[in-house]
């Protein structure tokens, strides 16, 4: 049996981040204010900053430009297909971008699966930590970020990978 959801909120350049964790401290979500499909604190949740200290330190270093790769235990909930897509996101390095089609190819999905890949990326429960902001349209456009295109633009600018069209 699992206990109540533990959470903390931490300030960031993107707004107050809401983090949730599993019983063992593995992160299950990171949401930004107004995020499409994002989480918000619910009755019965327990504020407990202790399991989030390492995540807060790494996020602060990332936003300061001092961290290029997160080393945190993540445990998002999703289908096997979504997990494959999210794992492929983890392989996109800091300062780089990729396309939805490239993610589909990386997981061995047919070209026709690009829409499903986009849906899985849009359902990413760990914004920033799992870099869905690094996925852009095939034409270089900034598309489909659940946290809002302004935040996607800020993250790509921070990483020095904002497409020239922007």
From TrEMBL:
Gene Ontology MF terms: methylated-DNA-[protein]-cysteine S-methyltransferase activity
Any Gene Ontology CC annotation: cytoplasm
Residue span, Methylguanine DNA methyltransferase ribonuclease-like domain: 5-75
Reaction(s) catalysed (UniProt annotation): a 4-O-methyl-thymidine in DNA + L-cysteinyl-[protein] = a thymidine in DNA + S-methyl-L-cysteinyl-[protein]; a 6-O-methyl-2'-deoxyguanosine in DNA + L-cysteinyl-[protein] = S-methyl-L-cysteinyl-[protein] + a 2'-deoxyguanosine in DNA
Enzyme class of the recorded protein, top EC level: transferase
Main localization category: cytoplasm
Protein name: Methylated-DNA--protein-cysteine methyltransferase
Species this protein is from: Streptomyces actuosus
């Amino acid at each position: 049996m699992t206990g109540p959801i533990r959470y903390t909120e931490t300030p960031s350049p993107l707004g107050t981040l809401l983090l949730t964790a599993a019983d063992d401290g593995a992160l299950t979500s990171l949401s930004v204010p107004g995020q499409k499909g994002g989480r918000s604190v619910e009755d019965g949740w327990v504020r407990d900053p202790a399991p989030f200290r390492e995540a807060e330190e790494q996020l602060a270093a990332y936003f300061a430009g001092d961290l290029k790769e997160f080393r945190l235990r993540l445990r998002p909930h999703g289908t096997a297909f979504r997990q494959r897509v999210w794992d492929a996101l983890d392989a996109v390095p800091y300062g780089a971008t990729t396309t939805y089609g490239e993610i589909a190819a990386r997981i061995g999905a047919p070209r026709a699966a690009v829409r499903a890949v986009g849906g899985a990326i849009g359902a990413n429960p760990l914004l920033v930590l799992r870099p869905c902001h690094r996925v852009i349209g095939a034409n270089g456009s900034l598309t489909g970020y659940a946290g809002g295109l302004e935040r996607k633009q800020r993250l790509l600018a921070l990483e020095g990978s904002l497409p020239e069209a922007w």
